[in-house]
């Protein structure tokens, strides 16, 4: 029995709540202080050091000492698996997992079955999200038809249908010529092209990072250069065409420095990493557990340190999950045959809060990387915690300790690399577009 | 009890004492194989299942003979004769076999780590009979027994392993075992097949020029070269491999007279090993096979001993 409650967006009630003494962290509005926050009918009515309501009869008042109130998180890299692989995840379960992790908008990657390479699939995703979703879904459409790397998709039609970005995530666009044309063409619309950087010849049949551990364990390696060569190529293409690119799931030291140098030169490049790339290393594969098989693979301590440095100095703009749910059918088999991917929606904030505790990021910087920056990159209107705006926010207990138990997840995916680990920091309440969609523990009743 | 583990999964985790204990035991069990009635009752009533997901003649036969000479009941399942071909997962297969209460699983699989995952699941003992490119502990044990019989000691002994180290579980198990016993190990082959990383995880040296090192070697372990490595662009041709790394009597002129030549089999005659070398006076390849039975008897014995009355 879960100690939390979740609702579909369309069935959820507008929030009417007064938070007393909550720490509001919102870099978009230059806020990081204890405040009282009044939300009425899903709209921020007042944000000030002290709000006194003489007769709060219809108002829920929450004494929020020690809690943080943050803008709702935006996860720009999620696999919802619907349509086509509903046994792994659905738009319903995926968005439930999102709001349980404090995420109010997810960008869904196009490698569904069928591929999101035409407006009918984009519309289907948006219709399903409206019907059964608990948060906003932002479809990312394919760069090439069928993710085959050959023919460009009809980008104008896809954007018209609701696509916010383009990506062949799961593989690189192999042909430099096709990638160049796609970047040139996408710049008509000022939407980002999200690059999955992987040279398939260098990574072929690989299972884990190539290096000391792969040699020791006798597991085929995926070398760092498979990622770095394509990061370099896509940066050069972006520089040449003047187009805007976003590098997905950065995992190596050299990728970070390539992006850092490109930014210095003024190339229009942004980048993301995922919590597992700054918290786990290849040693964890020692048990041959395919939960830890992910693409790009978990690297080494020096890569982890470089990723953390890249987050600290702003080279890496975004923390996204690359939430990739699988069932035991794909995972509980020989490691060579197991699918790549990890779930992350319900653990990403807690793992990322580690960066705040270790002093790498301030709370405001973390919020930027998990909320404002991804929204800006995707071109989504973003107001943050601002008077008279529709309220999308979360309440977090930054000190709550909990043990990860994937049987408690809303996600159908069981492939969580943090299973059994103690994490610190937990989402207590999620309000998406004014509606209370998630509450945990003593806040469950707010969802009713 | 010197060997108290449930399983034998790899040489990496074994101590020097455990390895020597198994070798001593194998030496004493060897004599059984020379008797006219080659059977002792030690493992009577024990059930040994050979679960082979990869073709093998010699290893499977060697385990089977070893188990039968100790009076265990043995059963073999290979890919072609089980539900494996129907798409059952290995964990399901093991769960079913586990329900029939075996005492020991002998497992070979083309994917590294499978015996380890099975060992965590089952109450029975697991012997790794070769997993992917990872380990082949009984092969290394029989190699070490053969070396010990000829050289007496490992201290200061120079062992040269030549060939496709990258894909070789035999090499990995021997690297761990030989360095624990005090031998100096050098790995030689083309850089595409000999990962330099090994120098940072084991006490070994990596070299690419065979003739630079061959004259110093006391033991030469020649590995089998899989023909498909050429197609995977590890090598330009088998011919060129054989020119650079194939062991011929010509190259051996520079070697020590008492050099021991070993090969885990099966041999690609004329590629990694010239036929006259394989059959020559320095070759102990068939002694390795003989010792294989004794080593596997020893391994079955130490595991069964855990729950003998």
From TrEMBL, chain B:
What Enzyme Commission number(s) appear in the record? Answer: 2.1.3.2
User: GO cellular component annotations, sorted alphabetically?
Assistant: cytosol
Keyword Transferase in the entry? The reply is yes
Specify the domain of life of the species encoding this protein. Answer: Bacteria
A Pfam family (short name) is OTCace
Q: Does the keyword ATP-binding apply?
A: no
Record domain Aspartate/ornithine carbamoyltransferase carbamoyl-P binding: where: 6-149
Tell me the protein's name: Aspartate carbamoyltransferase
In its UniProt entry, the species of origin is given as Thermodesulforhabdus norvegica
């Amino acid at each position: 029995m879960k100690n939390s409650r979740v609702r579909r967006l369309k069935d959820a009630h507008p929030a009417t709540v007064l938070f007393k003494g909550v720490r509001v962290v919102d870099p978009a509005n230059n806020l990081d202080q204890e405040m009282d926050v009044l939300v009425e009918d899903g709209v921020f009515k007042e944000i000030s050091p002290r709000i006194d309501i003489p007769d709060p009869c219809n108002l829920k008042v929450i004494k929020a000492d020690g809690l943080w109130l943050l803008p709702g998180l935006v996860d720009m890299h999620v696999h919802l698996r619907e349509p086509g692989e509903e046994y792994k995840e659905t738009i319903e379960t995926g968005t439930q997992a999102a709001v349980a992790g404090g995420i109010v908008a997810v960008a869904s990657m196009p490698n569904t079955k069928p591929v999101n390479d035409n407006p009918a699939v984009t519309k289907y995703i948006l219709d399903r999200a409206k019907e059964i979703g608990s948060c906003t879904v932002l479809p990312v459409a394919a760069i090439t038809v069928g993710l085959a790397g050959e023919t460009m998709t009809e980008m104008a039609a896809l954007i018209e249908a609701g696509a916010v970005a383009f990506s062949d995530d799961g593989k690189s666009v192999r042909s430099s010529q096709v990638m160049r044309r796609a970047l040139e063409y996408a710049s008509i619309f000022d939407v980002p092209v999200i690059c999955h950087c992987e040279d398939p010849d260098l990574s072929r049949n690989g299972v884990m990072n190539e290096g000391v551990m792969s040699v020791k364990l006798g597991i085929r390696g995926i070398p760092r250069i498979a990622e770095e060569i394509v990061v370099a190529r896509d940066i050069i293409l972006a520089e040449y065409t003047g187009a805007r690119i976003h590098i997905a799931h950065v995992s190596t030291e050299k990728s970070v420095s390539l992006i850092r140098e490109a930014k210095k030169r003024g190339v229009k490049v942004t980048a993301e990493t995922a919590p597992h790339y700054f918290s786990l290393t290849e040693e964890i594969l020692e048990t041959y557990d395919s939960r830890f098989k992910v693409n790009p693979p978990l690297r080494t301590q020096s890569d982890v340190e470089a990723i953390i440095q890249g987050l600290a100095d702003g080279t890496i703009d975004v923390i996204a999950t690359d939430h990739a749910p699988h069932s035991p059918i794909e995972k509980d088999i020989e490691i060579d045959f197991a699918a790549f991917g990890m779930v992350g929606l319900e653990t990403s904030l807690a793992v990322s809060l580690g960066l705040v505790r270790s002093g790498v990021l301030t709370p405001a910087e973390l919020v930027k990387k998990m909320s404002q920056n991804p929204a800006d990159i995707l071109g989504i209107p973003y107001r943050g915690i601002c008077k008279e705006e529709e309220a999308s926010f979360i309440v977090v207990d930054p000190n709550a300790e909990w043990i990860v138990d994937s049987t408690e997840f809303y996600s159908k995916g069981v492939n969580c690399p943090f299973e059994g680990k103690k994490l610190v920091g937990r989402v207590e309440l999620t309000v998406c577009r004014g509606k209370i969609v998630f509450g945990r523990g003593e806040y469950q009743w707010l969802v009713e | 009890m010197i060997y108290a583990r449930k399983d034998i999964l790899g040489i990496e985790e074994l101590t020097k004492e455990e390895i020597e204990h198994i070798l001593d035991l194998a030496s004493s069990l060897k004599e059984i194989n020379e008797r006219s009635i080659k059977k002792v009752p030690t493992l009577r009533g024990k059930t040994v299942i050979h679960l082979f997901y990869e073709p093998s003649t010699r290893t499977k036969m060697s385990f089977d003979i070893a188990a039968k000479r100790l009076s265990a009941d043995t059963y073999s399942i290979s890919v072609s004769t089980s539900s494996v071909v129907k798409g059952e997962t290995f964990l399901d297969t093991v769960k079913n076999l586990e329900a029939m209460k075996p005492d020991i699983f002998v497992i070979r699989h083309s994917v590294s780590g499978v015996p380890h995952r099975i060992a965590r699941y089952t109450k029975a003992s697991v012997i790794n009979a070769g997993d992917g490119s990872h380990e082949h502990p009984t092969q290394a044990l029989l190699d070490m027994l053969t070396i010990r019989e000829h050289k007496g000691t490992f201290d200061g002994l120079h062992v040269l392993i030549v060939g496709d180290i990258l894909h070789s579980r035999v090499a990995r198990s021997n690297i761990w075992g030989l360095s624990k016993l005090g031998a100096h190990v050098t790995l030689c082959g083309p850089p595409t097949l000999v990962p330099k990383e090994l120098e940072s995880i084991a006490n070994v040296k990596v070299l690419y020029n065979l003739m630079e090192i061959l004259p110093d070697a006391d033991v030469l372990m020649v590995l089998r070269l899989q023909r498909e490595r050429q197609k995977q662009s590890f090598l330009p041709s088998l011919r060129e491999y054989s020119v650079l790394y194939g062991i011929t009597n010509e190259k051996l002129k520079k070697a020590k007279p008492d050099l021991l030549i070993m090969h885990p089999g099966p041999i690609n005659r004329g590629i990694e090993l010239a036929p006259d070398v394989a059959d020559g006076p320095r070759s102990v390849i068939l002694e390795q096979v003989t010792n294989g039975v004794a080593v596997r008897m020893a391994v079955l014995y130490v595991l069964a001993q855990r729950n003998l009355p």
